[in-house]
Amino acid sequence: MAHEHHQHQPIELTHVSKAFIIGIVLNMLFVVVQAGVGFSINSLSLLSDAGHNFADVASLILSLIAFKMQKIKATRKYTYGYRKTSILVALTNGVILLFSIGIICYEAIFRLFTPVALPGKTIAIVALVGTLINGISAFFFFRDKEKDLNIKSAFLHLAADALISLGIVIGGILIYYTQLYWIDPVLSILISIVILIGTWNLLKDSLTLSLDGVPKNVDIDKINAIISTNKEIKNVHHVHIWAISTTENAMTAHLILQNDISSEQAHHIKQHLKATLLQHNIHHITLETETDSYGCEEENCK
User: Fold this and answer.
1) Is the full-model pTM beyond 0.85?
2) Superfamily for the 215-300 domain
């Protein structure tokens, strides 16, 4: 008795949070101001922080894209819609950031040996504005940060940006009082390291998703253990888990049931299993079932 059923359980996102809109607008405006001031006074720390802030604005925009992709209906050609666009954009964003980091670090190392006189007071003032903007933006996400992974990610990014900007404030004050201009390139290198860590994870995760690897928020061993605890299921194999977007995952599996399982029982087993796996970040599930009377060769049951 072979049965195939496809589970469609999209994440309920009826509207885009105003926090994302506010965060994008405020931070994008600040990126323009910060980059402009950074270029005018030749401050690498402001420029590198502007790059970092722009990366987080891109992350917020990606979340918006993911939300919008949820609403685009599938077509005969694109049966999952355009959800995977968010993964491809994340991969592209990571590559661009990596290239930008190389340019910043090259210039920073050069500046260490030939420091440029900088207005520490201006750096401190601009960075202070950034601290306030990032802090306010993070506050908008604080209340709902445990309700959605995208919201929690946005909160953590913005909170980290506020701390980095605060560090630049301190650096600007030190430059103003000590005239130690090498502090600016050192700050830019430290910020670049922070961006590199985040960018490397972004590259690694987006590349994994692009290659249909198991998403980071899914524990495949735990998934197999959940399935195996059902006494009516004798064997599970051909388990495949991949991401169809940055927020939704899909899974297919082949279940071998006990011989005395009826079609109705098999249906209930699958529905219960799908409801359970939905709590473990599996949103689209296809299960094929048959009894062990059909046989299960060892090489085909993995």
Assistant:
1) no
2) Cation efflux protein, cytoplasmic domain (3.30.70.1350)
